[in-house]
Structures
1.
Amino acid sequence: MTNCKPLATPMTQNEKLTKDDNRERANETTFRSLLGSLIYLTNTKPDIVHTMSIVSRYMSQPSKAYFTAAKRILHYIKETKSYGIFYKSEEASNLISYIDSYWTESIDDKKSTSGYAFFLGIKIISWSSRKQKTMALSSVGAEYIATTSAVY
């Protein structure tokens, strides 16, 4: 992947990965090894956390579609090598939060995905992107669940 084409986004827009896509299965050991390395990388590259949460949902029986999505993250990393987190002291630090959800993202169980990021000044101190535990009946409900999960 050293000479791969750099890409500006870690995942294609509106890509839907499903559990039963009836595609050829990928090598589980190789797929898990790649995801383990990428999960380790999320400590300094929070821009891939959401994509990683989607790609790692079906690690027990990954299809070629999931493996292709994981390799796309490597293409994105090549484009964004200089991106990352660097902390240094700062005098004025306000707590800022961003919370959002994506309603009915999962085709398999119709659950939405929540995400949040908390900043102290310009430094990110906490973030999360995960599937909601309950099914929301509307986008407003998904936003309410996302806000509640970020607070706790």
2.
Amino acid sequence: MTEPTLYDQLGEDFFRRLVHGFYEQVRTDDLIGPMYPDDDWDGAEDRLRWFLVQYWGGPHTFQDRRGRPMLRKRHFPFAIGMAEAERWLELMSRSLDQFDESELSPAQRGQLWNHMQRVAYMMINTQ
């Protein structure tokens, strides 16, 4: 028997709330907000949710609709430095803070946070 994935443990609604909470902040953020097209907030939210769901063991909606993730390639048109990576992490951390320990255990949060940090720093493409 296989171990339940983080997606199995947390469910679709967790990822929906996490990503929505993140984008609620991004919309008004002075540093990374301008990187997002004003006419595609819902699309951006969907794509991040699909990616996270797929990465953590849920349906492969991202790959079915967008192909392989290729995160660095997809983000290369945007100038992402340390400040942008840190801001992305700050906003994501605040979104994670909406969940108490009954919804997200410290171990689960640690798994998510480790992944978020690796991805954010991997996106850096400028000094």
3.
Amino acid sequence: MNINEILNKLGIEPDNSGTSTGSKWLASKGAVISSSSPVNGQVIASLQSTDAAGYEKVMEQASQAFLHWRKVPAPKRGEMVRQFGDALREHKDALGALVSFEMGKSLQEGMGEVQEMIDICDFAVGLSRQLYGLTMHSERPGHRMYEQWHPLGVVGIISAFNFPVAVWAWNTALAWVCGNVCVWKPSSKTPLCAIACQHIVAKVLKANDLPEGISNLVTGNACGTLINEDKRIPLISFTGSTRVGKVVSATVAGRFGRSILELGGNNAIVISASADLEMSVIGAVFGAVGTAGQRCTSTRRLIIHESVYDDFTAKLAKAYGQIKIGDPLDENNHMGPLIDQGAVEDYLNAIEQVKQQGGRFLVEGGVVNGPGFESGCYVKPCIAEVKNHYAIVQEETFAPVLYVMKYKDIAEAIAMQNDVPQGLSSAIMTLNLREAEQFLSAAGSDCGIANVNIGTSGAEIGGAFGGEKETGGGRESGSDAWKGYMRRQTNTINYSNTLPLAQGIKFDL
């Protein structure tokens, strides 16, 4: 499929509104956003972003829809999500290709992202019959205590460019089965993916005669501030940089709202002396090069035992020599472009900082030029030998720059892994059971995700996803992450003919 065929299959016009409640696309006077593909640098389509008046219309529709949606039984809400998952299956090829073309990740990763949406829908359908509360024994005779979970209301979702559809689905599928409605502000770098998703879900809402305001879309950076400050939105899920996440957290907390924060990662793989080196190379290369290093779980650091350091880095350099860079829609290529020129500048700055701070490159980087690379967004993945304390190593650079360093024993490796401000994903490659268990212990990795013999990248939806420290502490997707989208209520029922008080307090009249 060419890009015009892709857009046609997904219902996207050359000029679109960026504001909708379900299938209703609202006129707006916001700034025009042009979506340019980093694949070829060409404008794909434009849209009119949301102004304050359009935002208000969306919030009115969302608030009204919640009054209906919260009363629909959870398994019935799950049925709507099941149908949405089936609709995604029908559109997987087109939506996956659009993700690849608009964002720049490989076609396999674009398809994988849509599959992740399908998977979370399947998970949410089962969850819709498992929103369990607890029953507790009361100290008072003739009393019963239990807890139940209720929906919060309107959930605001602010997503990033690197996963333009999956992260929205993680939040939305759970929020929907929990009885909430959603207002989504996607990245202005990948708005067409969001418009495509809205077209898909709108048909499901219409087929089930459900309120349009269950799924809402607003676009433009100004809407981020409106959502964060809106007291009608009790929960904000924000995915993005630590810098912006701090602002979101403070703003939302200032109005006593809740936030789910998925922020920066500075993820390391420990390569043990006991590691399977061939398998470790695959995990390290995909983690560092997948999505051109633009995942929050991308592998940024390799902490390698000194006894295997030379052997492993030689294998790694050889593997880097086999990486094919180019059009991500060509399945023979491993790596596509960075998202835009700003990302390229950050990449080049990181390379310069490595040199200034004392590092040396085992595999040199640089911008790729020539036919097929006219967008200027294609870069070479590089490997730098550094010390963990270098200032640039302590930062997250959203690009394929991989740092390698040595360690002597497992205690030192764990300390190095933990000695960064971020705490998202981590891994150890080892066949030594003691090392593995130590890495996973309370004295081991301080990250929200800790793996053994797999890399840092590629989380499954069954487990809760998120990290600690400057990663923000949020949890999305699997396990009991659904509780973040609901409010807990404790209930006590007195079925006796007296009114005993707790703690044995007497209050006689």
